[in-house]
Amino acid sequence: MNKVKSYLVFAILQIIANVSAAEKYSFLVVGDPQYLAEKSHSPKRLDPYSETANSRAIALLKSFSGRSIPEDHGGGEVSGKILGLINTGDLIDSADKNGANYPAMQKFEWERYKADYGLTGKDGLIPFPVYEVHGNHDGPQGDTFIVADIIERNRKRPGIVNRSDNGLHYSWNWGPLHCINLGIFAGEGGKRRNDHHYAPRSSLEFLREDLAREVGKSGRPVIISFHLHPNCPEYDWPKEDLEAFWKAIKAFNVLALFHGHTHGSPPNRIMWDGQQFSSKLAEGIEVFNPDDIGAAKTDPKTPGQGVGLLHGFLYVELIDKKGTKEDRLIVRSYATRDNWQSHDWHTTWNRNIKIPDRKN
User: Fold this and answer.
1) Nearest 5°: phi and psi at 163?
2) Which of 119, 137, 243, 291 pairs with 87 at a CA distance of 20 to 30 A?
3) pTM of the predicted protein model
4) Are 152 and 108 in contact (CB under 8 A)?
5) Is 312 exposed, middle or buried (0-12, 13-18, 19+ CB in 10 A)?
6) Domains and CATH numbers, the chain
7) Cα dihedral sign for 337, 331, 164, 253?
8) Residue of 258, 176, 174 whose CA lies nearest to 221
9) How far apart, in Å, do the first and last CA atoms of the chain sit?
């Protein structure tokens, strides 16, 4: 009997030890809020559908910690210690346009974005730091006042461990996870090339330098965020840049790529093996589209009605246990079909990963 009791005590102590040895790192990924002001030389408000989408989304993000997770999505609840929020670009709607009302609209939209999202988790409406990139609606060539302000924000952004020479691209760490933000897409050179669409602002040069400096041969897990989807037309993401991007990351422990731009609803995931993109690939890097979180507006063809009312975002958990056999990456999508009037969990992706043991 004493042997049975001893065994039970030992088993319980082992369970407690395993639980205490596990660390969870939780964060959110959103994209394309696309704050849209009313068309005016002196806007005082957002388009009503943009206002509804973004104000409801902010309220949801603000209260998201502690939300119950259904059993069919793994159970439990959202962490009370969300580390931060990655925003994959198209923060506002109007900075890819010129003249007429647009300069005033751009300023109004950008001020509203900053007031809502904040920067540090203490200066906006959501209680955790924000890590954004710019999208094509924020400045296709990366030369607008919005991009300049993102560069300035990067000087104050919490936890930054590395910034590019131009100040636009940056990286930080959440526990064992190394996170890299690369602007509109990963490409070489500062300017747009002939016969292509967007300026990469030397993001690929920064990526190579950052991986060598901050990750090296450590095997630590990496995530990378940018705006464009890597399987987009070559006019947007040049073929040579995409090939160079894969070459730069293939030797590293890259867990996931996060992008915006496509407004794919609900949020979705594909795999990339350097040659093809498909949801059916057995191996490769996971590429996640969080959908847009707020890109709704009044239908120009039917005044009084809205378009773009389907939205979503991602809740991500990195589970680091002793050893590397039970480490997990869990990505859950959260979505709405009615401009955030109603909303719920949608899809969960869950897989084994490898995180090197922490040093004592």
Assistant:
1) -130, 150
2) 243
3) 0.93
4) no
5) buried
6) 23-352 (3.60.21.10)
7) negative
8) 176
9) 37
